[in-house]
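Hi C.,

You asked whether I'd gotten around to modeling the 186-residue construct. I have! Everything is below, sequence then structure, no commentary in between.
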Amino acid sequence: MTSKNEKSKNKKQLILETALELFAENGYHATSISMIAKVAEISKSLMYNYFDSKEILLNEVILTGMKEFMQILDTNKDGFLTEDEFESFLNSAVLLIKNNRNYWKLFYSLMMQSSVMEISMETVIKFTQQYFITLTDYYKRHNSENPEAEAMLLTTTLDGVAIAYVNNPDFFPIDEMIKLIYEKFK
């Protein structure tokens, strides 16, 4: 038998997944709390038991994806990225993008809407700071002349690959691109 806590967790997860799908498909502004509740087949008042506002819901969707992304960066959490971990990170990033296309579609569309991105900017900055610190340290240990620029170039390249894949997954060779990125950035 499912406990009350498990049911609550399942409802919250359902809301998050439904919001992600609708935000990615329709955009943040065009998606209402009523629409999310209807698609999730729950009452609007129950939605507000879990999330006080659409902004808080969006922030939680973004936070969930950022946590998942950070889990693949330094898998043993020692703050030290080895070359094997670097390669694993790139391969895992591809899987994450493929398996969570709606999330990345939403994320990149929000990046282009500064008024909406402001809602989750604090969350994104918190996670990207650790990401840059880890990558910069990796390039410092590999005697890069400009480790910060290397980390930024890698990030920008990965963003470009992700955007191209999210927009056209059937025709964009993401696996081949990641192999090239690994060879150029390792």
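If it helps when you're writing up: The chain is about 80% helix and 0% strand.

Thanks,
B.
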